[in-house]
Amino acid sequence: MRLDRRNVGRLVLAAALVFAVLVPQLHLTFGVLLPGPLDSVGSMNLLAIMLVAAATAVTLDIVFGYAGLLSLGHAVYFGVGCYSVVMFTGLASLDFPMAVLLAMLTTLLLSVIGNACALNLSGFGYAMATLALVQLLAIFIERGYAGSGGEVGLTYSLGVLPDSFTGLVNTRHLYWLALGTLVVVYGLARWAVSTQAGSIWQAIRENPLRAQVLGVNVYAYRLAAAAFGSFLAGVCGIVYSIVMGGANPSIVELTYSLGLILMVVLGGRGVLWGAMLGGLLYTYLNLRLASVATATGMQDLPDVLRVPLTQPKFLLGVVFVLVILFVPGGLASAVTARWRTRRVPATAQSPEPTTQPTKRASDEGHEQPDTATGPEERVSTQP
Fold first, then answer.
1. pTM across the whole model
2. Is residue 15 assigned to a domain?
């Protein structure tokens, strides 16, 4: 097998997937990096949340990275998926499988309608329309309309979730569920962007006017990309409700949508595995920096170190600024650029081959003139 960038990437992803599957069986400790050993309940729960966030970042990369649509309200569809499944099991007293199916249909319907309305505006107008959607949903949830629970949120009733997803002893099952969600979402996203529609999305992102002149229905293709990514975000919201045991209003706020955008930019816009990496890193820092700030011995540090280290948001902002300054294309661009420098073509380093004059068949038996001699060395043979 040829060892090019694509094959190396596949090998790395396969190795990472095998390791991720075996994580609940590994009793490894990483100090303050994790709440406990790798197979502990706290670490499993943290990793599950990170995996769901990474999957959601991949769904936004379809909309933002490939279709070129800046959505400030991607959390709307994530929140609808999360809240609807909990509300269907609680208020409507539906079985869990039926509630999941109806939640997926609700998310799909809202994804099509919401993006169809927002895409009537282009560019900055689309971003403002999605911002209005997330603000409306946030107000709806915070005021407790339709039994949404208000600021407290909602939790699953006893006996609603399958037994394999309840109890501390089954935390590893929640982790595997989150991991499976990431694999499925990434696979569907990779398939979508590799099709002809995915190529058209990228063409529209670069120059929508040129694509329209060439006969492409820009509105329809944008709607397909936005609805597809939004629907997958709703599926991630359903999984999030299972991992967390309910829904909370923080996932429908503007800050969560902005966090998703930061994940994509941090990892690399337009690179699916970069968005996944950005989602993992951002969620980890967002959840663990608060624990580092309250760690034992932090108060003994000098003020010049203690004050910034006890401000998690400040540290997260510093990390983001450093990435923007030194790696403008995201973490994925740094990896790909390093790979290109190491895989310089051999023809670029080897000297140009010297060409020797060849004798034609008609010149056999005749001596070729010596063109290397100067004019002063040439002797005329004419009388």
1. 0.84
2. no
